[in-house]
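In line with agreed milestones, work has continued on tokenised descriptions of protein folds. One protein thus recorded appears below exactly as we store it:

>
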Amino acid sequence: ATQMPLKNLPQEEVGYLASSMLGERSIPPDALQTLFRETGGQPLFVVEAIRTLVNADVVRQNISGDWQWGEFPETLLSDDISELLYRRITALPAVQRQVMEYACVFFNDFSFELLAAVWRGDEFELLDVLDELIVEGLLITYGYEERYRFSQGLYRQAVYHRMQDARRRLLHREIGGA
């Protein structure tokens, strides 16, 4: 079987894809923003997210046939797509999974310095692992001071929601003390 990598779509094209799936001209800007943020523009995730939203009646047709968009529950998208993402994450080497666990507790983004302050290993190894996770497409860097964040919010959710409660609490406490 041939594998073809799909490139992430820009926000505008996510809107076109979602609209075409629903037979609509456009989707509401706030819904588009949330959809783009949660899927990172990954076409497979966009398709699955739309299906999930329709199946959960978050997106539904009114009596005149127009699509109505409700509020996105925080974990709705992660529930259906999470298993697919988590399988990808569990296939990573243990040290990469461990860095992902630390990173997901920061929620939005983090600096190397803050992550290194709570990391219990070698800082050079940590830098190498961060670079590997960027190459894997799981993390991205941005900004002048090089901050890190998950390439897609769903990766963070997949790791965070499958972590043991005790580990999550411990990591939150360590990060809070850094």
